[in-house]
Amino acid sequence: MIQIQNVHKSFGSLEVLKGVTMDVNKGEVVSVIGGSGSGKSTLLYCINAIEDIQQGRIIVDEIDVHAKGTNQDRLRQKLGMVFQQWNSFPHLTVLENASLAPRIVLKLSKKEAVERAKKELNHVGLGDKFDEYPTRMSGGQQQRLAIARALAMKPDYMLFDEVTSALDPELVGEVLDTLRMLRDDGMTMICVTHEIAFAREVSDKVAFFHQGVIEEIGPPEQVIVNPQKEATQKFLSKVLH
Amino acid sequence: MGSSFFTPLSWSDSGFILTGVLNTVYISLVAIIVGTLLGLAVGFIRAEANKATNVLLGGILDILRSVPLIIQLILFSTYIGAIGHPLDPFVTGSIVLSLYTMAFMSEVFRGGFESVHQSMIVAGRSLGMSYWQTVVHIRLPIGLRAVFPSWLGVALSVIKDSALVSVIGYMELLRTSEQLISRTQQPLEILIGVGLFYFIVSYPLSLYGKYVERKMAI
Q: What is the ipTM of this complex?
């Protein structure tokens, strides 16, 4: 379970998160929507300990992410993260991209790491690309590689930061299909996304971020279909029309 | 006294020339290897260090890069002689040439480290890699590929610059050829031969560099 408790985060004098509280239970899919600069992506970076927080706590399976003494490298093994930019390692083949971290972080033997990587690559439909270099692949394929690379660490949670935003429109579908598949596998996911229809379809909960706080949170039928708050209604009327 | 004081170039000189060739290769290799390793360390420190450290290091490197190598060689060799610790010309030449090479290599490597985008490193860290694992498995291989052509350019110029070590008495190819010229009075043949040697060493290396560059441009 991920517990986010009154989290404040500033970059210099700019306060991006102004007291965010939210729980994500095991097996849940939570979508985070909201305008640019509302703090959605920053929250993911804080959960993954890439960014510090100034106040509040984030607890992942009883571990306080930002407490002194927390082994953040080990914590990140629980939390797979995929970014807007896929960040494939260009000097490695697809198979090496997906087997590197299991090999050097989890200290698996090369054979085990490769087997694990192959399984995840097959899962995301890249079974025929093992020896290809990522720069020769489409954005959608590279994003699926990034997902497989994260899954090969067998994380308990997956964090998706606008994973379709940098893709050509015709490539968005294949990545969303991969996310649907993960949901069906029972993966716990937090998806920061602009794909409102997708959020409505896959999420157990939708959180609408506005000016650094969660303005509205609840099942998609409430937040997306029948928003209670004015800010949510305004945002949705802008993005849906 | 009919026979000349000068004797023409002959096959028996080949051993002497070979010594010069080997010494040139030897000191170039030392300078390239030491300069590369030091340059890698200094380049990494510069890419990671704060502004104050960078200003200090940058100043030292600027001096090494801006003062002509021949002056550095003479100054260093004279200085250590003057303080009573004269060194073998090979050692003196290796130290100066290595530091000079380091100054250029460090800038090449700094550029390489800085060319690896922060998001790539964040991606590594988010997979649970430690700071040093991202350095070894992401920044080094990606950065080094990016700067390989520049590295080769510096290495090739070091081979040619090694000729200057002759001024402090190291018996490399240029100095052996100067001695042969003063004995044989055949400067044209000898200098063409020496020039050819540098070309024969450098050109295939530069071709190889282009080949590797093409291969890496995946």
A: 0.89
